[in-house]
Each structure stands twice: as C-alpha cells, then as structure tokens.
Amino acid sequence: MSVKVWVAVATALLAVLLVPPLLTPGADSGEGSQVRALRVLVPNSPGGGYDITARTAAKAMEDADLLRNAEVFNLPGAGGTVGLGRTVGERGNGKLIMSMGLGVVGAVYTNKSPNSLLDTTPIAKLIEEPDIVVVAKDSPYTSMQQLVDAWKANPGTVTVGGGSAPGGPDHLAPMLIAKAVGLQPKSVNYIPFDGGGELLASVLGGKVAFGVSGVGEYRDQIQAGTLRVLAVTSKDRIQGIDAPTLKQAGVDVEFTNWRGIVAPPGITQTDRDKLVDLFARLQKTPQWAEALQRNGWTDAFAPGDQFRTFLENENKRVATVLKDLGLA
Amino acid sequence: MEQLLDGFATALTPTHLLFAAIGVLLGTAIGVLPGIGPAMAVALLLPVTYGMEPTGAFIMFAGIYYGGMFGGSTTSILLNTPGESAAVVTAFEGNPMARKGRGSQALAAAAIGHFTGGIIGTILIVLLAPFVAKHAIDIGAPDLFAIMVLAFIAVTSVLGASRIRGVASLLIGLTLGLVGLDEMTGQQRLTFGSLHLADGIDVVVVAVALFAVGEALWVAAHLRRKPFEPIPVGRPWLSRGDLKRTWKPWLRGPVIGFPFGAIPAGGAEIPTFLSYVTEKRLSKHKDEFGKGAIEGVAGPESTASASAAGTLVTMLTLGLPTTATAAVMLAAFQTYGIQPGPLLFQRESGLVWALIASLFIGLTLLLVLNLPLAPLWAKLLRIPRPYLYAGILFFASVGAYAVNADVFDLMLMFVIGLLGFGMRRYGLPVLPAIIGVILGPAAEQQMRRSLQLSDGSLIGLVNSPMAIIVYVVVLVIVFFPLIKRLLPKPTPPAAPAVEREKVDA
After folding, report:
1. Interface ipTM
2. Cα(B262)–Cα(A109) distance, rounded to whole angstroms?
3. Is the pTM above the cut of 0.90?
C-alpha cells in the first residue's frame, strides 16, 4: 500500500480521536426544570478530590434527570487557582460552575493568586470529609494525649505527615491542633506527601510519627488493623471508626475538609437561583445519597448565602494559620 | 494458581476479550498522542464504563494502561516526540535508529521489550504480591535519595564528548526543574509571579520542546544547504544480530523496573534512565550509543512495562497509588464501591485474578497487534522532510496544549524549543538537560524529606541498611578507576574508558 494511503488513514484516525475532546457542546437555553449544557470546571487533575466530586455529582444529576449534557473538564494548576482565575474571568457566564474545596482557600494564599474565592458567586457547599490522626499499629502512641505530650516535649522529632502541600487541608489540620495545644505552628515538623496514598506508605512504615489525612484511603487498612486512629477531627464521631473526636480527646479543634460549588461573578439572579436550586434538588435524590454512602462523604449541604458566610469564615481561619507560618 | 486459572476463565470470555482488545487499541492510540498520557486516558474513559460491570471495566483499563505505556514509545522513536514521560528515554536511541532507516527494528525491539517486561512483571505480581506489599513500605526517603545519588553518578556517562558542555546542559535541566512552588514550604521559585509556572514545567513539555521543536528549528535552519535525502527504510524485521543484542536487555528490564514501580514515589522515569545507563555500560557496542544502539531501546522499554506492573502490586495490595495512572484507577475502583487494600484479595478475589489474567491477555494482544504494524509505522519517515517536520511540530503543539488545555504551555514549549535550538548551535548535548529535569526535583524532594524526618541530622541520610548498600556501590563506582590502577595489570593497560558519543547529529 502506498505511503499516501497510510498518511490518510493515520490523519483520519487522529482527527477522530482529537476533535471530539477539543469541541464543546454548543450552549442552548435551558427550559423547564431540566438544566442543559452546563460546564463543570475541575481545578485539579483527573482522579483528584474535586474531580471525583464533580463527576459523581454530574452523574447523579443526569441519572435523576435534573441535568442534561453536563460537561466536566479539568483545568488543573497551582492548587486550583488557575481554574479559579478562569472562573473569575468568565464574569456573567451562567452556564459554568467550578468544583472546589478547602484546598483552594489555602492555595490562593500560597500561590499569591490575584483572585480570591470571595470574588466568585458561591452556589453550595456539598460535602464534608473529616481528617483522621493516624499512626501505625506498632507505634508507641496509643492515645491522643500521649501523642500530644510527646509532641510538645519534642516537636522537631515527632514528625507529622500529610497528603497535601502547605496550605492544603492535611497541612492546616495539624497546624490548628498544634496551636490548640500551645505549640508554635512554625515548630511543627510537617512533611508533605503527594496525596494520602503516598503518605499511607510512610505511616505504615513508621517513617513519620503520625499522619493526618482524609479518612477515605485509609478505611481498609484501619479495618485490617494495620493502622490505629487516635482521633477524628470532625464534630461527631465517624461511624465504623473506633476513635474519639479531637474535643473528646482534649484538643479544642474542630476541622473538616469540605467541597462545594462556585460560579463566576456577576451572573444574573435567575441563573444563580437556578443553580442553587439544582444542587438543592440534587441533595434530595436517592442517587446522591447512594454516592455519599459509597464515597464515605458526609452530607453538608449549605446553599448560596450560607455558603458565602462559611467561605468568609474559612478564609479568615486559613489566613491566620498561614500568617503564623509566613505563607500569607 | 487455581485462582489464576479461574481468572483466565473469566477473562477469556468473548465479551471480556473484546474489552481487552478495545482497551489496548484505545490505549495505544492515545499513547501515540503526546500530552495525553495513560492517566488522562483512563480518566476520560471512566464515565464510559459506568454502565459496565466492574470486571469488564477493569479489564479495559488494564488494556488502556499497558497500551498507553506502549503507544508513547512509537512517537518517541519515529518523531523524537515522547508521548509520555516513561517513553522519554526511548527517544535517546530509538530516534537515531529510525533516522538510520532502522525504525522498524527499533519499534519491534520496543514492542517485544514491552511484552517481555510486562509478562515478567505480571508473573512477579502473581508470585511476589504479598512480599512486595510487606516490604514496599520499608523503602523510605533516605533509600530513595541514595538511589538518586547513584543516578547522578551515572549521569557522567551521558555527558557527551565535552564534559564542560555536558555539565552546562545538566545545569540547564536542573534549573528548569527548580521552577515552581517548593513542595516542602510552599515558597515560589522562579515562577516570576505566574500561576502557570506554579506547578513547575512538565517533563514531557521539556522533552518535546528540546527534542522535537529544537530539532525542527535546526533542520529548518539548515535544510536549504543540504540536498534532500529521504530516510531509507531498511529491512523490516529484527536480524539475528539484533536479537543477540536485545535478549539480555529485555530480561534485565524487569529487574530494574518492577521494584521501582512498586515503591511509593518510584514511577517509570528514573528506572528507564537507570536501565539506559546500565545497558550502555554492559554493551559491547558502546560506540553506537547516541547513534542508535538497539539495546538502548530494548532495555528501557522492558523496564517501563515492568514498572507499570509493579505499580499495580502496590495499588491492589495496599491501596497505594505510586503513579498518576494508578491514582486514577484507584478512584475508578472506589466509584464501583471497591476499596483496594490488604483485604481486597480476600473480598474481591474473582475480580483481582480476572484482572491479572487480563494483563497477560492484553500484553499478548498488544504484541500481536503492534509487531506487524512496526514496518508500516516506520514508513511514515518516508514523508519528505519539510512535511515530516511540519507534522512533528503540529503533534508537539497539540501535545503541549493537551496537557493542560492552556496556551501558556504552548508558548513555553516554543521558548524551550528555542533554547534547544541554541544548545544544538553551540554543541551542548540535550540529553543531560532532560536528565536534570527528571532527577533534580526528585532528588531534592527525597533529600529534604530525609533531613526533615531526622530533624536536620545528617545521619538521617544513611540510617537505613538499603541506603548504606547503595552508597557503598556508589563509592565502588567512583573509586573503581583508582583501585584498578593499584591492582596488578593482567592485560595491556586499559585506556580509561573514554565514552565518545554525540547526542545529536
């Protein structure tokens, strides 16, 4: 066969593969109760927390016939602030929403992003995921009190690992705990890992004294008895995990990682209400309930204005911690 | 064993075979495109599989995974444009081979290397899963840093004819590797206030820019002066001599690749590079390295494939993703309500063994599909040079854009491409720069992590048995020339091994 034919075949193949992802479905005006052609921006890479939340929510909404033609796309970078910049730049676009969470709040400071989350239109807080304070099964620490005593005596050698970069949830939690027990955040020897998975290896291997991370990736190991949970950071105990809350263990901190949805600034009141309503209805669907259960997420629905107040408070809290560390 | 046979029984049903074939084809097609790595491929296809039952879905993912790893090497060899980071090293020797008219041999060596590495890797999964699960977590930051030191020592062998130019190139690479937010403290380095640089520069973007764009510019600058000579297309199959040179690298690959895939933060970049250096040292044809030595394709490809298998071990047994693709597959498991971890083999043994069986099937399909295609792919190079390089630039641009769908990356690629052009103009080899981008950030992170773990004490760098062993090896390599001089000479004085090589013609 001649070269020409092969080139043609290869070109055709590539065109078929390349063109669909590069094209976006044309927007059309949504009528009736169904929302159409919504684009969901995920500011981290495929498989990350915001990605799973966005894709799970989009699927539940489609299954429940609340939404048609949702397109989830990733624009990762700089802890989510590249995506935030894009969202803020799309002023007035009522067909775009961004999946986000606590990590973006901190990333705004560490990346010195020119845009803040307070520039966006908050739509809804969706879920919470508590962090756990965890050690290997042969660790010398059997209670939070023991750990805190050792930590206070020698903050440098009692190393703490977390699955996020400075400014992220797993970094903020130990810093808040340190502050609460009277340790300078600066004296904390925090070692960042690339996600909860990589941290898990170091906790299991006893490389770090203790780890702080989301409960998700650790459930199986906890069940198998290779990990010991000293405390959970949420307000209430977590079902299926035999550990006190931080408050019950004598540390006055309440902390959960959360995720939610924001929209670009300057969208019309109608668009905003439609979006808030969409997520309010999502929250009541059995599909969403099942997704929460499957992923081990806690429902933490808070619509529009409530979410804005919450965001403002979180922003302040994160800023205080990062200021102590010289990061904000 | 019985469970594995049951696994084969599940995987060999027509539907599952079809899924495996679709996965392998899709994976290869996607791997060929630069910028869309296997991680993104799996993530993009995740929604497609929502309607499928989990076994079928995972069989397809496994096919995509191996197919993607393999597809990346095709463009590496033919167009000097690595499709993803595991295939960067393949371009070192694969592309010179292709330009000498041995493209189909390079592709065949890669395909068979991939198959061998994958099969041995998968056998190791079956045999060693519990062992690896137990010991992978013992490897810590000090051990990894020791291996990085070893890798840096090995770098001297790729510096090229002029050491000064080689070191200059290495420093350029290390500097590019510094760009971004410091992972340990969150401070910005060389980002010039740009959010787009906060995550650093992707190694694929650097490789594509330095290899493909730099070279296209170079060719454009010189094209007028040279008469047009089409690249010859040689014999399509591996000769006996080729096989003699490749069977050992194929078998050595898994030894290097599998453990790296299994340990946290291992990945495929560093083992493929180590394999390249090993093959170069062991080869009887050292003078051919840099000009198209087939060992330099066979070894790294086999290594990359085995490391992909190693990754699956830690993911299945510990629920611990060691690469981006594994992280996406882990997420996929979770959407099906399956939690990989120590209890997975008991709870979902049917699924796991079917998955492992499908790895064998996928690899075989991959070989069967790709070996006959190798000579056809190689004919691509018959396209007249102006069109060929235009095509390469097009692919490179698509790839750089596809990584983040960001115009900034495109600009970045052309800026680094200009740098690559400048390096060629002044005779700086490109290879050490790529190595710098790969090794620099990894070494820095592991060293600082070790020092943090020991609260700043230097003992923290050498307080594990494995680290000590690796350092001893390093010392032996460094002082070997001295020791050799002190020993009685059995043979005529061996000239110090001057490794002459030119990275780019």
Report:
1. 0.71
2. 35
3. no
